[in-house]
Specification:
Blueprint: H1 68-90, E1 105-108, H2 117-130, E2 135-139, H3 144-151, H4 153-157, E3 161-166, E4 185-187, E5 191-197, E6 202-214, E7 219-224, E8 230-234, E9 246-248, H5 256-262, H6 268-274, E10 282-283, E11 289-295, E12 301-307
Parallel strand pairs: 1-2, 2-3
Antiparallel strand pairs: 3-4, 5-6, 6-7, 6-10, 8-9, 8-11, 11-12
Helix pairs in contact: 2-3
């Protein structure tokens, strides 16, 4: 039997460990993939059970400044980032985005009736749960408790809320001409009133003014009481229905035709009172609160409730 024998005195040579700089990257020719000096650790059909860790293959690499491929890749990436930033700067912000680009929430009231505090509460809870940046409550009218909840929403749960008044033009269909200048949604204020005592069991209300927001100029204009088109008074408001007990038209001549028809049956002071800003004295009702509804030049009805306990002397 013939076999092979080792030569005497000859040592078995050890395999030399390859350096990281000798590795060849298979995609080194790509301009966006600079030469990093890496290659696959094995070329077997089946992967080994364990991998040999080589610190030179770690993701955090110290690049050599004398690498044209790397410099070309970084320059291309910087160019792409600048182009993306320029496009984002020219893109107008989304109308449904609030501060910081976050989405906002909308709550729409019923077609017939006012927004209730329950509907506003459900909208506030969902807005807070889903992390929306702002809540807009839209309706033809709003109940006093619901309006108070909107105003206190940010202080209570950290979500700012705004009530937006919708004009009745929306429910008139094609009866009105639709124009680009039509402003059917607008924020609005509340009437400013003073409640005073007029004797022991009697009270009196004075309309001080009303803030009006112009959606065209985006400015708020304060109106004096004698410049408000109309205001109505409910001397015993029950939180359900507004009952007109007294009505006044300071800016308009709504009583002129009636005055001519009566032909001086009443004194001039009576007509001046109906066109004024101070109500007639009245007694307290069982509900212990009054409601004042102011009507601005756009036809918005703005309701404010005041407790008789808030009377000023």
């Amino acid at each position: 039997m013939i076999g092979l024998a080792k030569r005497g005195g000859e040592r078995k040579s050890k395999a030399r460990k390859a350096e990281a700089s000798e590795y060849r990257h298979t995609q080194a020719a790509s301009p966006l993939r600079p030469d990093v000096g890496t290659q696959a650790q094995f070329r077997k059909k089946k992967p080994p059970a364990k991998y040999r860790y080589d610190s030179s293959l770690a993701p955090a690499l110290d690049w050599d400044a004398q690498n044209p491929a790397r410099e070309q890749g970084e320059a291309r990436i910087a160019q792409l980032q600048a182009e993306i930033a320029a496009v984002r700067a020219l893109k107008p912000p989304s109308p449904l985005a609030g501060e910081g680009g976050k989405a906002v929430a909308f709550v729409f009231g019923p077609e017939n009736g006012a927004l209730s505090d329950k509907l506003v509460y459900e909208g506030v809870r969902e807005t807070h749960a889903k992390g929306y940046a702002h809540l807009y409550v839209i309706g033809f009218a709003i109940q006093p408790n619901a309006r108070k909840l909107v105003e206190e929403c940010e202080a209570a749960v950290g979500v700012p809320a705004t009530y937006v008044q919708a004009t009745p033009d929306l429910v008139m269909g094609d009866l009105l001409k639709n124009m680009r200048s039509s402003q059917i949604f607008s924020v609005c204020g509340l009437p400013e009133v003073a409640l005073r005592k007029d004797g022991a069991p009697r009270y009196q209300v004075e309309l001080l003014g009303l803030d009006v927001f112009d959606p065209v100029t985006m400015e708020t204009t304060p109106l004096q009481g004698d410049d408000v088109p109309a205001w109505l008074l409910d001397t015993d408001y029950n939180n359900l229905a507004f009952h007109v007990c007294q009505e006044f038209f300071p800016r308009t001549s709504a009583w002129a035709s009636l005055k001519r028809a009566l032909r001086g049956a009443y004194e001039e002071s009576v007509w001046d009172h109906l066109s004024g800003t101070v109500s007639a004295p009245f007694e307290a009702g069982k509900h212990g609160q009054i409601a004042v509804k102011g009507i601005d030049g756009r036809g918005n009805e703005l309701l404010m409730v005041k407790q008789l306990e808030e009377v000023t002397t």
